[in-house]
């Protein structure tokens, strides 16, 4: 068997930039899986992508499948031969089916008797025969929400495809994929190298494309070139790149031949709020903003052209000319918006529909206000500031600036509130209402901002749940998962010990939807939010076991902050040597109590009925430790509580060794069940540790 | 259905002023890319009759820095999406990104863009109609030995006044829809 590198490249029209990296990774992954399924041995696999191509290079791919031993099972020996050992029709037919003689068949003994088998060596198929189907199947599995068709072809892909390269070693693979015949001809840069280019061998792919094609096909290298080039361009005017991190990936998905250029804009636009300038530069044009070493914006940007212009000044000039009217628009909005205070816009909120069935933005605004009031009362926080912020929070949605730059919602509200002379704390809370905006973003710093942010999200979640439109599967059109995660992060990271269940009920009661089953929908919503806590906790501590989470989740703590305190305590508990045996005991008790269907933890124990030494000892230990543990639980000192409970291991173990719970005497039996019930209740005050049991 | 073998029956269209509204400010974004009335339907009718439709278009806005290749791709995705809704499909879209002073061989009236398409499809240029609204579209068609056609959309009415010499007798239509109707009738009668 020989081995040689294998290259496949699919040439396409401009691929969707946000999906490019995923498409590239998936192509590499699916192709590897396809080769492995087909038993085609290979070494390393590397995927490449540019806006107009997806490619995979497989090192040292075998030119054929390995031969393999196959065993076909035939009829039982007892019907295959007569008593004289002469082959009967079943044997003859089986041999014929296998293309052999009866004499070549072997026998195997099983516990059900002896059977005929035919063992043979199946020659592996050549890779050249298999690769076309493997590539086609891999492309069919790429994550593409909507496929399109083009030209006369029946093929479908995310964008029209125009050429296909498939080389195994120096040879073209004879295959047709998506209606294209494989060849060695690729195309370089759309404009710098419009004529076909031949790839002599897979290992020449990257350098031929780079030297003759003006294409950097390696995504990561291209991204690195962009980052370096953009930073260098900024450094040429002694500047640094700010607020542009997320752009590197996006630009790498947009250009094949990155050429950074420094541009300028008029200095007067630096008087605009910083976020307005950076949004204009990054959002509309994907320009990288530049700041000085103190972090203050300067009137320059770096853009990355996809071609080496003969006249870079013309490209620079064009880019500057494109950004100028955008900045002028922003400056116009900044001036005109401030002529009308936010407060004067409150009334207009009633005329904007928020969501079918959930009223206007005005209705939503008032609901958020009521919720803020509820939350402030629950946390004993003065509500004046948060209430004012809630009343004004949605007004910036009606300004020209937010109409043009939706991502500036909240941010502009804060700027305008300050300009209106609202108290600083009100402006800050308005600015914090949408935090965290994305994974890893900061969380509101002020309590007023936190209350507003939680109320805003709770109202949204409650509204959509009340309408029965909770997300299913991967579909989450309203972004409810992100909203729920936002609540989790605020409550946990800002240590707000809030009764979330009560807040959810209040949020549901405020919805303008008839006949909401508040307890049922509330319970559902609680779990929806708590599920996000599960993911969040696992993110922060990848070593966390699901059983640990389950132990706390079983208690459905009303406060998510309290949830995390309990979680930490259970993690500590797991480090104790007594943990395993106490978890097992709890599980055993839970099972006994479930079966006996009696004695809840409330049933009292009658001391006079205690008779065995072990149960007397357990009772005494419970009495003593219970008195220590209950106040600890009340003070949320769960780690200390579980530490104290750990002392119960020996009496519990002895109890189970010596005492028969399900005795015939019903009084004694019920008394013992009550004893176990009390033990269990004490543990449940922290978590259901029975879930931790591995036995 | 397309013929099972042999070169396709090809029609090459200019883009701005033929398929979509032109703008002196350049068409720079998908939002500014608006189809002319009946143009998408015309392409769909050509497809239905077995024609492969390709596009050849000057886009010097790229050289001028007004938009980038990504914006161009986004415009063409919108074009293809709208066209698919109308039941049509366009195959290759070839674009010249250069400025007028760069001396490239693809910017119309140079024949480079058209020749690239004609070569790739392997068709006889003399069989191919090239539809445009500007003089340079028609001159490029002549230079590539293809058959120029003028439509009166975009710059077409002004261009019509300038038709002289070898262009004096070329077919002229009100818009792409009228051209498609004419071509399909011409097909069906012989």
How would you spell out the order of helices and strands of chain B? EHEHEHEHEHEH
Beta strand count of chain B: 6
What is the overall shape of chain A? Answer: flat
Rg of chain A over CA atoms, rounded to whole Å, is 35 Å
Q: Identify the overall geometry of chain B.
A: globular
Strand adjacency order, main sheet of chain A:
2-3-1-7-8
Mean pLDDT of chain A: 93
Structural class of chain A: alpha+beta
Alpha carbon gap, first and last residue of chain A? 50 Å
Which quaternary structure do these chains form? Answer: heterodimer
Write a structural description.
The complex is a heterodimer of chains A (695) and B (190). Chain A has 695 residues and is of the alpha+beta class. The two termini of chain A are 50 Å apart. In chain B, strands 3-2-1-4-5-6 form a six-stranded parallel sheet, sandwiched between helices. The A-B interface holds A 13-14, 17, 51, 148-152, 159-160, 162, 190-191, 194, 254-255, 305-307, 309-311, 314-322 and B 2, 8, 28, 52, 61-70, 72-74, 76-77, 80-81, 84, 89-93, 95-99, 101-102, 106, 116.
Quick structural summary:
The complex is a heterodimer of chains A (695) and B (190). With 695 residues, chain A is of the alpha+beta class.
Per-chain topology:
The complex is a heterodimer of chains A (695) and B (190).
Chain A: E1 3-12, H1 20-37, E2 45-50, E3 53-62, E4 68-76, H2 77-80, H3 89-98, E5 106-110, E6 113-122, H4 127-140, E7 161-168, E8 171-172, E9 176-177, E10 180-181, E11 185-187, E12 196-198, H5 205-213, H6 219-235, E13 240-241, H7 245-252, E14 259-264, H8 274-285, E15 288-291, E16 297-305, H9 312-337, H10 361-378, H11 384-392, H12 400-404, H13 411-419, H14 424-432, H15 447-466, H16 480-493, H17 500-509, H18 518-540, H19 546-553, H20 560-574, H21 579-596, H22 613-634, H23 638-646, H24 649-658, H25 666-684
Antiparallel strand pairs in A: 1-3, 1-7, 2-3, 4-6, 5-6, 7-8, 9-10, 11-12, 13-15, 14-16, 15-16
Helix pairs in contact in A: 1-4, 6-7, 8-9, 10-11, 10-15, 11-14, 11-15, 13-14, 14-15, 15-16, 15-17, 16-18, 16-20, 17-18, 19-20, 20-23, 21-25, 22-23, 22-24, 22-25
Chain B: E1 9-13, H1 39-48, E2 51-58, H2 69-85, E3 93-96, H3 112-121, E4 129-132, H4 135-143, E5 147-151, H5 156-161, E6 172-173, H6 176-189
Parallel strand pairs in B: 1-2, 1-4, 2-3, 4-5, 5-6
Helix pairs in contact in B: 1-6
């Amino acid at each position: 068997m020989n081995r040689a590198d294998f290259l496949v490249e699919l040439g396409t029209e401009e691929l969707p930039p946000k999906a490019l990296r995923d498409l590239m990774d998936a192509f590499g992954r699916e192709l590897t899986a396809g080769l492995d399924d087909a038993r085609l041995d290979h070494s390393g696999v590397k995927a490449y992508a540019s806006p107009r191509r997806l490619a995979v290079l497989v090192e040292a791919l075998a030119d054929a499948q390995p031969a393999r031993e196959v065993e076909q099972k035939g009829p039982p020996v007892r019907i295959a031969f007569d008593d004289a050992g002469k082959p009967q029709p079943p044997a003859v037919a089986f041999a014929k089916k296998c293309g052999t003689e009866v004499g070549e068949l072997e026998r195997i003994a099983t516990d059900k008797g002896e059977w005929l088998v035919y063992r043979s060596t199946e020659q592996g198929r050549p890779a050249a025969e298999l690769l076309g189907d493997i590539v086609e199947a891999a492309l069919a599995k790429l994550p593409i929400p909507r496929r399109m068709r083009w030209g006369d072809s029946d093929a479908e892909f995310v964008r029209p495809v125009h050429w296909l390269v498939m080389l195994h070693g120096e040879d073209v693979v004879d295959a047709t994929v998506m209606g294209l015949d494989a060849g060695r001809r690729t195309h370089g840069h759309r404009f710098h190298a419009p004529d076909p280019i031949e790839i002599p061998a897979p290992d020449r792919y990257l350098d031929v494309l780079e030297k003759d094609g003006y294409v950097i096909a390696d995504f990561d290298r291209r991204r690195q070139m962009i980052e370096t080039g953009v930073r260098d361009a900024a450094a040429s005017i002694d500047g640094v790149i700010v607020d542009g991190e997320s752009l590197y990936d996006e630009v790498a998905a947009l250009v094949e031949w990155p050429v950074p250029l420094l541009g300028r804009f008029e200095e007067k636009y630096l008087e605009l709020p910083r976020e307005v300038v950076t949004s204009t530069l990054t959002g509309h044009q994907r320009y990288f903003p530049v700041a000085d070493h103190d972090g203050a914006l300067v009137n320059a940007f770096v853009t990355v052209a996809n071609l080496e212009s003969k006249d870079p000044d013309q490209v620079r000039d064009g880019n500057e000319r494109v950004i100028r009217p955008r900045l002028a628009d922003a400056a116009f909005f900044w001036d005109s918006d401030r002529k009308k205070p936010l407060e004067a816009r409150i009334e207009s909120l009633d005329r904007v529909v928020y969501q079918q069935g959930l009223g206007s933005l005005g209705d939503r605004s008032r609901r958020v206000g009521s919720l803020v009031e509820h939350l402030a009362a629950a946390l004993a926080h003065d509500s004046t500031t948060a209430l004012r912020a809630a009343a004004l929070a949605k007004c910036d949605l009606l300004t020209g600036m937010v109409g043009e730059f939706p991502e500036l919602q909240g941010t502009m509200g804060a700027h305008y509130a300050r300009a209106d002379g609202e108290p600083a704390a009100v402006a800050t809370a308005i600015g914090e209402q949408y935090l965290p905006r994305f994974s890893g973003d900061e969380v509101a710093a002020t309590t007023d901002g936190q209350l507003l942010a939680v109320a805003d999200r709770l109202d949204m979640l409650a509204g959509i749940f009340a309408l029965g439109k909770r997300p299913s599967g991967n579909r989450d059109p309203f972004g409810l998962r992100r909203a729920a995660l936002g609540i989790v992060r605020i409550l946990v990271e800002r240590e707000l010990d809030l009764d979330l269940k009560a807040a959810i009920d209040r949020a549901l009661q405020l919805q303008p939807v008839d006949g909401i089953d508040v307890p049922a929908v509330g319970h559902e919503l609680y779990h929806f939010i708590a599920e996000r806590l599960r993911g969040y906790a696992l993110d922060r501590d990848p070593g966390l076991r699901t059983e640990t989470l389950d132990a706390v989740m079983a208690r459905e703590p009303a406060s998510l902050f309290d949830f995390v305190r309990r979680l930490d305590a259970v993690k500590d508990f797991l480090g104790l040597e007594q943990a395993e045996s106490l978890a097992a005991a709890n599980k055993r008790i839970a099972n006994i109590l479930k079966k006996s269907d009696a004695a809840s933890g409330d049933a009292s124990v009658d001391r006079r009925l205690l008779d065995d030494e072990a149960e007397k000892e357990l009772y005494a230990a419970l009495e003593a430790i219970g008195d220590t543990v209950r106040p600890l639980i009340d003070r949320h000192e769960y780690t200390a509580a579980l530490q104290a409970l750990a002392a119960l291991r020996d009496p519990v173990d002895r109890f189970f060794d010596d005492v028969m719970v399900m005795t015939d005497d019903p009084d004694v039996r019920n008394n013992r069940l009550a004893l176990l019930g009390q033990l269990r209740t004490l543990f449940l005050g922290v978590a259901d540790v029975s879930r931790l049991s591995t036995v | 259905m397309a013929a099972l073998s042999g070169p396709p029956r090809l029609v090459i269209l200019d883009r701005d002023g033929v398929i979509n509204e032109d703008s002196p400010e350049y068409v720079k974004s998908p939002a500014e890319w608006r189809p002319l009335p009946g143009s998408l339907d015309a392409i769909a009718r050509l497809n239905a009759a077995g024609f492969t439709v390709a596009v050849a278009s000057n886009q010097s806005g790229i050289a001028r820095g007004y938009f980038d290749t990504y914006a161009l791709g986004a415009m063409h995705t919108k074009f293809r999406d709208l066209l698919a809704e109308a039941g049509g499909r366009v195959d290759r879209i070839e674009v010249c990104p250069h400025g007028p002073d760069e001396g490239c061989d693809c910017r119309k009236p140079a024949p480079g863009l058209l020749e690239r398409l004609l070569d790739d499809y392997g068709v006889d240029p003399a069989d191919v109609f090239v539809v445009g609204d500007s003089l340079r579209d028609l001159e490029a068609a002549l230079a590539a030995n293809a058959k120029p056609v003028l439509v009166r959309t975009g710059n077409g009415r002004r261009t019509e006044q300038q038709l002289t010499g070898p262009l004096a007798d070329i077919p002229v239509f009100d818009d792409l829809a009228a051209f498609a109707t004419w071509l399909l009738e011409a097909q069906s009668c012989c």
